[in-house]
Write a structure and sequence with these properties.
Layout (H helix, E strand, L loop, with lengths): L8 H4 L2 H4 L23 H29 L16 H21 L1 H4 L4 H11 L8 H10 L20 H11 L4 H10 L3 H4 L3 H21 L6 H23 L3 H15 L4 H35 L11 H7 L37
Helix pairs in contact: 3-4, 3-7, 3-9, 4-14, 7-8, 9-13, 11-12, 14-15
Bound molecules: protoporphyrin IX containing FE.
């Protein structure tokens, strides 16, 4: 009897290939040769890395879709003028999935931490100079999200790309030529029709913010517990806040100002029905920035526990390098809008609410 050619669990998921990939290559003369594990825990090390790479693959898939929807990438060759309103919840769902993956994946570092550092030392030399530093998918995620290349720590003055092979470098080059999620976001924010709704929003918001800072200053001023030095330090901080709102809303290129003002506007008036989905999307992107940074921070803590401050297998200073990367920010100062949120009772009211069918103040 012949077996009908239908999917089975193992064939559909190609488990033969996936589950045959846990024996390390020998790097000897015969291509394809593999060796036994050097320590029982080497299996944990390999599987945890492979699981991370699978999550990276899914996140790239999802971030690409979020970028395409938000950036109105040609679908069937036609680029539409605006993001269809019904697409915004899809972008929210996609970013939400990425955030959930990051949250779950970061917990996987707990699994690798069940390996004692002495067990790692049993095979660490055999894997040198391989390192997560060479994870192409991780670099692709950073690039697709929009991490500015200029903000990277340069090890010994060189680029991470020097640690990759020509095929991997070509993949990075292709990614660098694509629109990023951040570009798509700025493009989308820039099209928010603030002027039709609230022509002097930036000026009105700055004045309302000044009123809020003045209130806060008065509260501090009346606190009998503070010393004169503490009061003086607080005054300096309040002055810095007044300057910061001006920088955020009025200093920068026209495109940056449009995006920042839109970010402020959407976040500030998030209770209005028409802004609910856009503000949920911005919240999702704030969470994404946070979750990505948590990945870096959690990885650094695991590394500290596993190898202390010694040089990494990839040749970097190790922990001190990883600590520096925890400062990376994909969306730069765009998310600083969070610095300027003020109590609802102080918000200025838009002048032309009917334009966007808002229902302000009710
Ligand atoms: C025993 C466990 C691990 C140790 C000791 C370790 C150590 C390190 C060190 C020292 C670096 C800096 C580059 C270098 O000099 O090698 C690095 C980078 C990196 N590792 Fe790990 N790692 C471990 C596990 C993991 C796991 C499970 C992942 C998940 C994929 C991972 C992903 C990365 C990534 C993406 C980088 C590049 C970070 C960047 O350049 O921003 N590592 N790792």
């Amino acid at each position: 009897m012949t077996t009908p050619n239908v999917p089975t669990y193992g064939s559909y998921l190609q488990l033969g290939r996936v589950l045959d990939a846990q024996r390390p290559p020998t790097y000897g003369r015969t291509p394809g040769d593999t060796r036994d594990l050097l320590h029982h825990d080497e299996m944990t090390f390999i599987v945890v890395h492979q699981v991370f790479e699978l999550w990276f693959k899914l996140m790239l898939h999802e971030l690409g879709r979020a970028r395409d929807l938000l950036g109105r990438a040609p679908s069937g060759g036609v680029r539409s003028e605006t993001v269809a309103e019904r697409d915004v919840p899809d972008v929210v769902a996609t970013v939400g999935r990425v955030n959930e993956i990051l949250r779950v994946a970061v917990d996987h570092f707990r699994v690798i931490e069940t390996m004692h550092p002495l067990s790692f030392l049993a095979f660490r030399d055999a894997i040198t100079p391989a390192s997560g530093f060479q994870s192409v998918q991780f670099r692709e995620m950073e690039i697709l999200a929009g991490l500015p290349e200029a903000h990277r720590e340069r090890l010994g003055g060189g680029s991470y790309a020097l640690h990759l092979n020509p095929d991997e470098r070509a993949r990075i080059e292709r990614r660098l030529g694509e629109m990023t999620l951040k570009d798509a976001l700025l493009d989308w924010l820039g099209r928010t029709p603030i002027d039709e709704t609230f022509p002097d929003f930036a000026e009105a918001f700055r004045d309302a913010f000044d009123g809020y800072v003045a209130e806060q200053e008065a509260f501090h001023g009346s606190n009998p517990v503070l010393t004169e030095a503490e009061r003086a330090a607080a005054r300096t901080r309040f002055d810095a806040q007044r300057k910061a709102i001006r920088d955020y809303l009025f200093e920068g290129s026209p495109a940056e100002l449009k995006a920042r003002r839109a970010f402020m506007f959407i976040t500030t008036y998030r209770d209005e029905p028409l802004l609910r989905w856009p503000s949920t999307l911005l919240d999702g992107l704030v969470e994404f920035e946070q979750a990505f940074r948590m990945f870096r921070f959690r990885h650094a803590r695991m590394v500290e526990r596993m190898i202390g401050a010694r040089t990494g297998t990839g040749g970097s200073p190790g922990l001190s390098y990883l600590e520096q990367t925890t400062a990376y920010r994909i969306f730069g100062n765009l998310l600083e809008a969070r610095n300027f949120l003020i109590a609802r009772r102080l918000l200025p009211l838009p002048t032309k609410t009917q334009m966007l069918r808002f229902n302000f103040g009710n």
